[in-house]
Amino acid sequence: MIKKIILSGAVISSLFSFAQEKITIMPAIGYGWRVAETASGLSKEEKDYVKGLKSGLHFEAAAYYNLNHIGIGAKFSSYSASSSGLFRGNSNNGMPVYFSLNTKDNITFIGPSVMFSNHAKPIKHKVSADISLGVISYTTKTGSVKGTGSTFGMELGAGYQYAITKNLMIGPKFTATAGTLSKMKYNGQTLSLGKDEKEGLTRVSLSAAAAFRF
Q1: The Cα angle at residue 36 between residues 60 and 131, in degrees rounded to 5
Q2: Is 82 left (phi over 0), alpha (psi -120 to 50) or beta?
Q3: What whole-number distance in Å separates Cα of residue 77 and Cα of residue 28?
Q4: What digits encode the pLDDT tens for the residues 153-191?
Q5: In Å, what is the CA distance from 205 to each residue of 2, 128, 159, 193?
Q6: Confidence label for 3 from pLDDT (cuts 50, 70 and 90)
Q7: Cα(112)–Cα(110) distance, rounded to whole angstroms?
Q8: Tally of CB atoms within 10 A around 104
Q9: pLDDT score recorded for residue 4
Q10: What are phi and psi of 40, to 5 degrees?
Q11: Stated pTM of the model
Q12: Are 178 and 154 contacting, i.e. CB atoms less than 8 angstroms apart?
């Protein structure tokens, strides 16, 4: 993955070496962890099932117009996770029965963003931080049951980049995304979630990031 980013950046940098570095494109890919507490009273099988949905793939991409050390633009991020499990229940006559479940979750964020960085300085070691406000959406599907919801969300990011060339930087990035759903729609029916039933979408992510300046 890192080699592909470096190669792509080298090609893009050579093509746009004449530019004035007014645009910064920042993609990142890594792993995310949801931090909302797991409901109490669950069986071991249920806890393991929920645990599978608490970590997954994180991807983000942002574009900024550079104004000295400040960038104004927009950001998108996505989190995907899935979990499968075998559960035991009872039939109408009291006999034990087993059934399998599979759930796929997706959380997306999109909104305007502001980035602060020292990318314009003629040094190899770069740092950046961004703050974004926008819409965070949640989709979950278990079998034929699909749930959706959206709310106001916020995303904060901080990273270190090493300058490979004048126009390409790579390095690790930490991201925190926050949002809570108080309403969900299941198969077209809207439900209000109680205080202890709200869906916490807050997560933290660690990624390999790149910054391309044109």
Answers
A1: 35
A2: beta
A3: 9
A4: 999 999 999 999 989 999 999 999 999 999 999 988 999
A5: 18, 16, 12, 26
A6: low
A7: 7
A8: 16
A9: 46
A10: -80, 165
A11: 0.84
A12: yes
